[in-house]
Structures
1.
Amino acid sequence: MRNDPKIEISTRLLRTLHRIHRQRTDLNGQIARGPRQIKAGEALVAKAGTDMQTVKDSLKNANLLSDEKQLQLKSREAQIDQLQTKLNSAASNREFDLLKDQIAADKQANSVLSDEILEAMEAIDGFEIQLNDAVNEFEKQENEQQTRIAEVEVKTTDLQNELERVNAELEQSEKEIPSEMMVEYRRIIKAKGEHALAPVEDESCGGCYQVLTTQYLDRLRLSVLIRCPNCNAFLYLPETTQV
Ligand SMILES: [Zn+2]
C-alpha cells in the first residue's frame, strides 16, 4: 500500500458520487441514442423511397414497351391491308402466292405480337399493384419517422432536464469532497467517468475484481480514502456492508 496521506471521507458521500456518475453515464447514453434512432429511421424512409422509385421505373418501362408494341401491331395490320389490296389485283399466280405467303407470315407475327402485348399489360397490372404497396410502405415509413422524431424530441427534453437535475445534485455533493482529494478526483473522473469509483464486492474491487487485502478493507471501514491498487478507482463499501 502506498503511503498516501490519510484522508477521511464518508462512505455515504462516495456511494452518492458513484450513483450520480452512473446516472449521468446512463442519461448521456440515452440522450445519444436519440439521434441514432432518427438516423436509422431516415435509412428506412430512404430505402422505401428507393424501392418505390424502382417500381415506378419498371411501370414506366412496361408502359413504354406496351405502347411501342401496340404501334407496331397497328402498322403491321395496315401493312397486311395493303398486301391484301395487292393480292386482290395480283397480276400472276406467282405474285399471288408470294403475297399470300407474306400475308400469312405477317399475320403469324402479329399473333405473336398480340400475345406479347397481353403479357405487357399483365406486367403493367402487376407493377401497378406493386406501386400501390410501395407508395403505402413509403408513406408508412414517413409517418413513423415523423412520430419517431417527435418522440425522441420529447424524450430528449425529459432526459436533459433529468441530467440537469443530476448535475446540480453532483455539484452539491462535490462540495463535500475533502479539498486534498479534489485534484485527483477531477483527474480520474475525467479519465474514467463512472469507473473512477468502485464498490467493494466480496473483498474485491467491483470495478476490476482485484482482490483486496485485509489492510485495505480495515482502512475502508475506518472511512479512509482508498484507491484500488490495480485500476486506481476510489473504493467504497456498498450499502449492504456493515460500516
Ligand atoms: Zn479496481
2.
Amino acid sequence: MSSLDDFARGKLEDLDQRSLRRRLVTTERTTDGRAFRASPQGGRRQLVSFCCNDYLNLSQHADVKKAAIAAVSRFGAGAGASRHVTGNHPLYEELETRLARFKETEAAVVFGSGYLVNLGVVPTLAGRRDLLLVDELAHACLHGGAQLAGGEMVVYRHNDMNHVREVLEERRARHRHALILTDGVFSMDGDLAPLQALTALAEQYDAWLMTDDAHGFGIMGDGRGSTMAAARRSEGPVHVPLQMGTLSKAVGSYGGYLCASRSVVDFVKTRARTLIYTTGLPPSALAASLAALDIIERDGAWRDKPLAHARLFAELVSLPAPESPIVPVILGHTERALDASALLEERGFLVTAIRPPSVPEGTARLRFTFTSAHGESDIRRLAHIVRSEILPKAAA
Ligand SMILES: Cc1ncc(COP(=O)(O)O)c(C=O)c1O
C-alpha cells in the first residue's frame, strides 16, 4: 500500500470512529419536493425532502426549465472558457443588470457559484494590511475568503455586537481597511444578522460590511434579501455596500453574485481570481436564473410560503418562531443526529443530519428547510414525529 493510500485510509478510519464520515447517497429529486433515495437495504424509496435549499422549487418550474432548454439549443451546453477569454455572453449582461435593478444597487457581477464569490471578492478587497472580522457561524466560504486575504482575521462571537465593537476599538487604527463579514441569514441556525447595528459600527469605525445572503435572496424583503428586510424592520439606517448571494438556492439555478457600487463591481471584474481564472457558467444556468427572477419578482404569495411553512412546523413542535425557512433541532451528539435522521427516513422523510465541522462540536442537529412546494399534511405529519419521537430522546 502506498503512503498516500495509507494516509487516506487512516483518515477515513478516524472519521468512521467518530461518526463524522460523509457519504454521498444517490438521490433523485422529483418535480414536487420529493426525492427517490437509494436505501441501505437495496432498491430506492420515495421520501418527502425537508433538507433542500430550492426554497421556491424553481429548479422544477416549467418556465425555468424551458428557458434553460432554449439556451442549450441556441448556445450549446458550456461556455468554453473564462468570460474574459471567450467573450462575455450577452446573458451575463442581462442577468447582472437585472440583479442590480432588483437589489437596488448600482451594479452586479455574477460568478460561477456563491462559494467562488466569497473566495474571490474578499481577497480582492482586503490584503495583509487589513483587518477582517468574521462571525463565528458565518459560512465556510466567507471564512475561506478571509483566510485567503491574509490580513489579521478575528472570528467574533455569533451576532455579538459588543465583541465586534471591542475588536474594532482595539485594532482598527492599526490597519489600512477593515471588513466585517457575516451571513444575512445563518445557514445552519436560520437566525438573522443584526444589520442595523452592524451598519452603525461599520460607519463609526470606517469598516466595510459584507453579507452572504445565500439563504435570504429570493425570499426575504420581497425577494430582495436580508438587507431589504432589515431596512424595513429597523428604525435606523441599514447600509450593506457588499451584498453577495447565490443563484443556486431560491433561484433554483446555479451561480453566485455580488451586488455593489459600480466601481467595486468593475474592480472585482478585473481582479477577482475566481472570476478570471475559471470557465464562465453554461448559458443555460444564466437563462434559468433570469426566468426564475421573473417569477420571484411577480409572485409574492409563492415567495412567502417557505417562511409560513417553517412557522407552522415550529408552532406544532413548540419551537420559537423562526425568522427564516431554516429550523434547526439541535441534538448534541453526532450519533443522536444520525439516529434521528434514520428514524425520519424510515417514516418517509429526508432530513440529513448536520455534524461538525459544518456546525460547532456538540451541536449536531437536524436542519429542516421549508419550501413553497411542501404540503400542509406532510408538515403536520413531520411535526408529529419530531414532537413525539425525536424531541423526547433529545431531552433524555
Ligand atoms: C451561507 C452560504 N453561503 C454560500 C454558499 C455557497 O453557495 P453556492 O452553493 O452557490 O456555492 C452556501 C451554500 O452552498 C451557503 O449556505
